[in-house]
Amino acid sequence: xxxxxxxxxxxxxxxxxxxxxxxxxxxxxxxxxxxxxxxxxxxxxxxxxxxxxxxxxxxxxxxxxxxxxxxxxxxxxxxxxxxxxxxxxxxxxxxxxxxxxxxxxxxxxxxxxxxxxxxxxxxxxxxxxxxxxxxxxxxxxxxxxxxxxxxxxxxxxxxxxxxxxxxxxxxxxxxxxxxxxxxxxxxxxxxxxxxxxxxxxxxxxxxxxxxxxxxxxxxxxxxxxxxxxxxxxxxxxxxxxxxxxxxxxxxxxxxxxxxxxxxxxxxxxxxxxxxxxxxxxxxxxxxxxxxxxxxxxxxxxxxxxxxxxxxxxxxxxxxxxxxxxxxxxxxxxxxxxxxxx
Length: 341
What we know:
With 341 residues, this protein is of the alpha+beta class. It contains 10 helices and 10 strands. The longest helix has 43 residues, at 115-157.
Protein backbone atom coordinates (compact mmCIF):
# COMPACT_ATOMS: atom_id res chain seq x y z
CA UNK A 1 0.00 0.00 0.00
CA UNK A 2 1.28 3.50 -0.96
CA UNK A 3 1.31 6.10 1.84
CA UNK A 4 -0.59 9.23 0.65
CA UNK A 5 1.71 11.46 2.73
CA UNK A 6 5.28 10.37 1.91
CA UNK A 7 4.61 7.93 -0.98
CA UNK A 8 6.43 5.09 0.81
CA UNK A 9 5.45 1.48 0.12
CA UNK A 10 3.89 -0.34 3.09
CA UNK A 11 2.52 -3.82 3.68
CA UNK A 12 -1.17 -4.29 2.90
CA UNK A 13 -3.27 -3.79 6.02
CA UNK A 14 -0.64 -1.71 7.82
CA UNK A 15 -2.12 0.77 10.29
CA UNK A 16 0.75 3.26 10.18
CA UNK A 17 3.32 4.16 7.55
CA UNK A 18 6.74 2.64 8.31
CA UNK A 19 8.47 5.85 7.18
CA UNK A 20 6.42 8.82 8.42
CA UNK A 21 4.46 6.89 11.09
CA UNK A 22 1.16 8.51 10.08
CA UNK A 23 -2.12 6.59 10.05
CA UNK A 24 -2.88 5.05 6.68
CA UNK A 25 -6.39 5.66 5.33
CA UNK A 26 -6.79 2.04 4.26
CA UNK A 27 -7.42 -0.23 7.25
CA UNK A 28 -9.35 -3.42 7.71
CA UNK A 29 -13.05 -2.64 8.02
CA UNK A 30 -14.04 -4.00 11.40
CA UNK A 31 -16.92 -3.05 13.72
CA UNK A 32 -14.30 -1.34 15.89
CA UNK A 33 -10.58 -0.70 15.70
CA UNK A 34 -7.93 0.00 18.32
CA UNK A 35 -6.14 3.33 18.15
CA UNK A 36 -3.60 3.51 20.94
CA UNK A 37 -5.27 2.31 24.10
CA UNK A 38 -8.74 3.41 23.04
CA UNK A 39 -11.21 1.40 21.00
CA UNK A 40 -12.86 3.54 18.34
CA UNK A 41 -15.99 2.35 16.55
CA UNK A 42 -16.27 2.55 12.79
CA UNK A 43 -18.73 5.33 11.99
CA UNK A 44 -21.84 4.18 10.18
CA UNK A 45 -23.62 6.48 7.71
CA UNK A 46 -26.66 8.30 9.05
CA UNK A 47 -29.29 10.55 7.54
CA UNK A 48 -28.63 14.31 7.41
CA UNK A 49 -30.35 16.37 10.07
CA UNK A 50 -34.01 17.08 9.38
CA UNK A 51 -36.03 19.40 11.64
CA UNK A 52 -38.95 17.60 13.22
CA UNK A 53 -40.09 19.78 16.10
CA UNK A 54 -43.56 19.61 17.67
CA UNK A 55 -46.30 22.04 16.71
CA UNK A 56 -46.38 24.86 19.27
CA UNK A 57 -49.46 27.05 18.80
CA UNK A 58 -48.07 29.85 20.98
CA UNK A 59 -44.73 29.98 19.19
CA UNK A 60 -46.46 29.77 15.81
CA UNK A 61 -48.76 32.68 16.61
CA UNK A 62 -45.83 34.78 17.81
CA UNK A 63 -43.97 33.95 14.62
CA UNK A 64 -47.00 34.96 12.56
CA UNK A 65 -47.30 38.23 14.50
CA UNK A 66 -43.63 38.98 13.85
CA UNK A 67 -44.11 38.22 10.16
CA UNK A 68 -47.17 40.48 9.90
CA UNK A 69 -45.42 43.35 11.70
CA UNK A 70 -42.39 42.98 9.43
CA UNK A 71 -44.65 42.87 6.36
CA UNK A 72 -46.34 46.16 7.29
CA UNK A 73 -43.06 47.99 7.93
CA UNK A 74 -41.22 46.55 4.93
CA UNK A 75 -44.15 47.21 2.57
CA UNK A 76 -44.21 50.84 3.69
CA UNK A 77 -40.47 51.26 3.11
CA UNK A 78 -40.74 49.38 -0.19
CA UNK A 79 -43.50 51.75 -1.32
CA UNK A 80 -41.54 54.87 -0.31
CA UNK A 81 -38.38 53.75 -2.09
CA UNK A 82 -40.20 52.88 -5.30
CA UNK A 83 -41.54 56.44 -5.50
CA UNK A 84 -37.96 57.30 -6.50
CA UNK A 85 -36.63 54.19 -8.19
CA UNK A 86 -38.18 50.82 -8.84
CA UNK A 87 -35.89 47.92 -9.70
CA UNK A 88 -38.24 45.16 -10.78
CA UNK A 89 -37.60 41.69 -9.29
CA UNK A 90 -34.61 42.97 -7.25
CA UNK A 91 -36.60 45.09 -4.79
CA UNK A 92 -39.24 42.39 -4.20
CA UNK A 93 -36.49 39.87 -3.44
CA UNK A 94 -34.86 42.28 -0.99
CA UNK A 95 -38.20 43.00 0.69
CA UNK A 96 -38.90 39.30 1.06
CA UNK A 97 -35.41 38.66 2.43
CA UNK A 98 -35.88 41.31 5.13
CA UNK A 99 -39.22 39.80 6.17
CA UNK A 100 -37.63 36.33 6.18
CA UNK A 101 -34.72 37.54 8.31
CA UNK A 102 -37.08 39.02 10.90
CA UNK A 103 -39.03 35.76 11.01
CA UNK A 104 -35.80 33.77 11.20
CA UNK A 105 -34.78 35.73 14.29
CA UNK A 106 -38.12 34.88 15.92
CA UNK A 107 -37.76 31.23 14.89
CA UNK A 108 -34.39 31.05 16.65
CA UNK A 109 -35.78 32.65 19.81
CA UNK A 110 -38.79 30.32 19.87
CA UNK A 111 -36.69 27.27 18.85
CA UNK A 112 -39.41 26.55 16.33
CA UNK A 113 -38.61 23.50 14.18
CA UNK A 114 -42.02 22.64 12.75
CA UNK A 115 -41.51 23.20 9.02
CA UNK A 116 -45.21 23.19 7.99
CA UNK A 117 -45.93 25.95 10.53
CA UNK A 118 -42.96 27.97 9.29
CA UNK A 119 -44.03 27.55 5.67
CA UNK A 120 -47.58 28.75 6.36
CA UNK A 121 -46.44 31.76 8.41
CA UNK A 122 -43.82 32.84 5.87
CA UNK A 123 -46.31 32.37 3.04
CA UNK A 124 -48.79 34.66 4.78
CA UNK A 125 -46.13 37.26 5.60
CA UNK A 126 -44.73 37.24 2.07
CA UNK A 127 -48.15 37.54 0.46
CA UNK A 128 -49.10 40.33 2.87
CA UNK A 129 -45.92 42.26 2.05
CA UNK A 130 -46.66 42.11 -1.67
CA UNK A 131 -50.36 42.90 -1.18
CA UNK A 132 -49.71 45.90 1.06
CA UNK A 133 -47.20 47.31 -1.44
CA UNK A 134 -49.87 47.16 -4.18
CA UNK A 135 -52.43 48.67 -1.79
CA UNK A 136 -50.13 51.59 -0.94
CA UNK A 137 -49.54 52.17 -4.66
CA UNK A 138 -53.30 52.09 -5.27
CA UNK A 139 -54.04 54.65 -2.55
CA UNK A 140 -51.35 56.93 -3.95
CA UNK A 141 -53.40 56.98 -7.17
CA UNK A 142 -56.77 57.22 -5.38
CA UNK A 143 -57.10 61.04 -5.64
CA UNK A 144 -56.86 60.74 -9.43
CA UNK A 145 -59.44 57.95 -9.41
CA UNK A 146 -61.81 60.03 -7.25
CA UNK A 147 -61.44 62.98 -9.61
CA UNK A 148 -62.15 60.78 -12.63
CA UNK A 149 -65.28 59.21 -11.15
CA UNK A 150 -66.46 62.59 -9.84
CA UNK A 151 -66.45 63.95 -13.36
CA UNK A 152 -68.19 60.83 -14.70
CA UNK A 153 -70.96 61.12 -12.10
CA UNK A 154 -71.43 64.84 -12.82
CA UNK A 155 -71.68 64.19 -16.55
CA UNK A 156 -74.26 61.44 -16.06
CA UNK A 157 -76.41 62.91 -13.26
CA UNK A 158 -75.77 66.65 -13.41
CA UNK A 159 -75.21 66.73 -9.63
CA UNK A 160 -72.99 69.25 -7.89
CA UNK A 161 -69.25 68.66 -7.61
CA UNK A 162 -69.44 68.09 -3.85
CA UNK A 163 -72.23 65.53 -4.19
CA UNK A 164 -70.48 63.77 -7.07
CA UNK A 165 -67.19 63.65 -5.18
CA UNK A 166 -68.91 62.19 -2.10
CA UNK A 167 -70.55 59.53 -4.27
CA UNK A 168 -67.24 58.69 -5.98
CA UNK A 169 -65.52 58.46 -2.60
CA UNK A 170 -68.14 56.01 -1.33
CA UNK A 171 -67.91 53.96 -4.52
CA UNK A 172 -64.14 53.54 -4.31
CA UNK A 173 -63.95 51.01 -1.49
CA UNK A 174 -60.50 49.55 -0.69
CA UNK A 175 -61.20 46.57 -2.94
CA UNK A 176 -62.37 48.74 -5.86
CA UNK A 177 -59.46 51.13 -5.38
CA UNK A 178 -56.91 48.33 -5.71
CA UNK A 179 -58.77 46.73 -8.59
CA UNK A 180 -59.04 50.01 -10.52
CA UNK A 181 -55.37 50.75 -9.86
CA UNK A 182 -54.34 47.41 -11.33
CA UNK A 183 -56.60 47.95 -14.35
CA UNK A 184 -55.07 51.38 -14.96
CA UNK A 185 -51.52 50.05 -14.57
CA UNK A 186 -52.24 47.14 -16.94
CA UNK A 187 -53.71 49.56 -19.50
CA UNK A 188 -51.07 52.29 -19.32
CA UNK A 189 -48.14 49.96 -18.52
CA UNK A 190 -45.18 50.25 -16.17
CA UNK A 191 -41.59 51.05 -17.08
CA UNK A 192 -38.48 49.33 -15.77
CA UNK A 193 -36.09 51.45 -13.72
CA UNK A 194 -36.55 55.01 -12.51
CA UNK A 195 -40.13 56.17 -12.12
CA UNK A 196 -41.15 58.35 -15.04
CA UNK A 197 -38.48 57.13 -17.45
CA UNK A 198 -39.37 56.68 -21.06
CA UNK A 199 -39.27 53.38 -22.84
CA UNK A 200 -41.49 50.53 -23.84
CA UNK A 201 -43.82 49.93 -20.86
CA UNK A 202 -45.09 46.52 -19.85
CA UNK A 203 -48.82 46.32 -20.52
CA UNK A 204 -51.63 43.80 -20.45
CA UNK A 205 -50.52 40.22 -19.97
CA UNK A 206 -46.89 41.24 -19.45
CA UNK A 207 -47.94 43.52 -16.58
CA UNK A 208 -50.01 40.79 -14.89
CA UNK A 209 -47.17 38.29 -15.31
CA UNK A 210 -44.70 40.77 -13.81
CA UNK A 211 -47.01 41.48 -10.87
CA UNK A 212 -47.37 37.75 -10.14
CA UNK A 213 -43.61 37.19 -10.50
CA UNK A 214 -42.78 39.99 -8.07
CA UNK A 215 -45.23 38.56 -5.53
CA UNK A 216 -43.61 35.14 -5.91
CA UNK A 217 -40.16 36.70 -5.40
CA UNK A 218 -41.26 38.25 -2.11
CA UNK A 219 -42.84 35.02 -0.90
CA UNK A 220 -39.93 32.79 -2.03
CA UNK A 221 -37.30 35.01 -0.39
CA UNK A 222 -39.19 35.20 2.91
CA UNK A 223 -39.92 31.48 2.92
CA UNK A 224 -36.38 30.37 2.05
CA UNK A 225 -34.79 32.37 4.86
CA UNK A 226 -37.40 31.29 7.40
CA UNK A 227 -37.09 27.61 6.49
CA UNK A 228 -33.31 27.89 6.55
CA UNK A 229 -33.38 29.14 10.15
CA UNK A 230 -35.87 26.44 11.17
CA UNK A 231 -33.56 23.81 9.65
CA UNK A 232 -30.56 24.76 11.81
CA UNK A 233 -29.24 21.56 13.48
CA UNK A 234 -30.75 21.18 16.94
CA UNK A 235 -29.95 18.93 19.90
CA UNK A 236 -33.26 17.59 21.15
CA UNK A 237 -31.72 16.23 24.36
CA UNK A 238 -30.34 19.62 25.44
CA UNK A 239 -32.93 21.77 23.67
CA UNK A 240 -30.24 23.94 22.14
CA UNK A 241 -28.89 24.64 18.68
CA UNK A 242 -25.78 22.88 17.48
CA UNK A 243 -22.86 24.90 16.20
CA UNK A 244 -21.69 23.99 12.71
CA UNK A 245 -18.26 24.76 11.28
CA UNK A 246 -15.90 23.44 8.62
CA UNK A 247 -12.96 21.61 10.16
CA UNK A 248 -10.66 20.44 7.36
CA UNK A 249 -10.60 21.60 3.74
CA UNK A 250 -9.03 19.46 0.99
CA UNK A 251 -9.16 19.05 -2.78
CA UNK A 252 -12.15 17.23 -4.38
CA UNK A 253 -9.78 14.50 -5.61
CA UNK A 254 -9.12 13.68 -1.95
CA UNK A 255 -12.80 13.44 -1.05
CA UNK A 256 -12.87 9.63 -0.94
CA UNK A 257 -9.77 9.54 1.26
CA UNK A 258 -11.38 12.10 3.54
CA UNK A 259 -14.51 9.95 3.78
CA UNK A 260 -12.44 6.86 4.61
CA UNK A 261 -10.47 8.67 7.30
CA UNK A 262 -13.67 10.11 8.74
CA UNK A 263 -15.33 6.70 8.94
CA UNK A 264 -12.34 5.38 10.86
CA UNK A 265 -12.19 8.53 13.04
CA UNK A 266 -8.57 9.13 12.08
CA UNK A 267 -8.81 12.86 12.66
CA UNK A 268 -5.09 13.59 12.72
CA UNK A 269 -4.60 11.77 9.43
CA UNK A 270 -7.51 13.71 7.95
CA UNK A 271 -5.95 16.94 9.16
CA UNK A 272 -2.52 16.05 7.74
CA UNK A 273 -3.82 14.84 4.39
CA UNK A 274 -1.71 16.95 1.99
CA UNK A 275 -3.71 19.36 -0.16
CA UNK A 276 -2.59 18.33 -3.63
CA UNK A 277 -3.41 19.89 -6.02
CA UNK A 278 -4.17 23.28 -4.39
CA UNK A 279 -7.83 24.02 -3.68
CA UNK A 280 -10.05 27.10 -3.81
CA UNK A 281 -13.60 28.07 -2.91
CA UNK A 282 -14.96 26.67 -6.20
CA UNK A 283 -13.24 23.29 -5.96
CA UNK A 284 -12.83 21.72 -2.57
CA UNK A 285 -13.86 18.90 -0.27
CA UNK A 286 -14.36 19.53 3.41
CA UNK A 287 -15.09 17.81 6.69
CA UNK A 288 -17.60 19.73 8.80
CA UNK A 289 -18.76 19.23 12.36
CA UNK A 290 -22.13 20.10 13.85
CA UNK A 291 -21.95 19.70 17.63
CA UNK A 292 -24.04 20.55 20.68
CA UNK A 293 -22.26 23.06 22.96
CA UNK A 294 -23.76 21.39 26.03
CA UNK A 295 -23.56 17.59 25.72
CA UNK A 296 -20.84 17.58 23.04
CA UNK A 297 -22.52 15.06 20.71
CA UNK A 298 -22.94 15.91 17.06
CA UNK A 299 -22.69 14.90 13.45
CA UNK A 300 -19.84 14.98 10.95
CA UNK A 301 -20.28 15.22 7.23
CA UNK A 302 -17.97 15.24 4.23
CA UNK A 303 -18.97 17.39 1.28
CA UNK A 304 -17.39 17.82 -2.15
CA UNK A 305 -17.71 20.83 -4.43
CA UNK A 306 -16.41 20.61 -7.98
CA UNK A 307 -17.42 22.10 -11.33
CA UNK A 308 -20.26 24.05 -9.73
CA UNK A 309 -21.84 20.95 -8.15
CA UNK A 310 -21.97 20.35 -4.40
CA UNK A 311 -22.56 16.84 -3.05
CA UNK A 312 -22.61 15.46 0.48
CA UNK A 313 -20.66 12.21 0.44
CA UNK A 314 -20.94 11.03 4.04
CA UNK A 315 -22.91 11.78 7.22
CA UNK A 316 -22.47 10.16 10.62
CA UNK A 317 -23.56 10.76 14.18
CA UNK A 318 -20.60 11.01 16.58
CA UNK A 319 -20.41 10.78 20.38
CA UNK A 320 -18.92 13.49 22.57
CA UNK A 321 -15.57 11.68 22.81
CA UNK A 322 -15.18 11.69 19.03
CA UNK A 323 -16.14 15.36 18.85
CA UNK A 324 -13.48 16.16 21.46
CA UNK A 325 -10.86 14.15 19.55
CA UNK A 326 -11.74 15.91 16.28
CA UNK A 327 -11.49 19.32 17.89
CA UNK A 328 -8.16 18.40 19.46
CA UNK A 329 -6.85 17.40 16.04
CA UNK A 330 -8.14 20.66 14.58
CA UNK A 331 -6.49 22.76 17.28
CA UNK A 332 -3.19 20.89 17.09
CA UNK A 333 -0.35 22.98 15.74
CA UNK A 334 1.50 20.06 14.15
CA UNK A 335 1.83 20.96 10.46
CA UNK A 336 1.30 18.48 7.65
CA UNK A 337 4.23 17.60 5.33
CA UNK A 338 2.72 19.68 2.53
CA UNK A 339 2.40 22.75 4.80
CA UNK A 340 5.91 22.35 6.12
CA UNK A 341 7.23 22.27 2.56
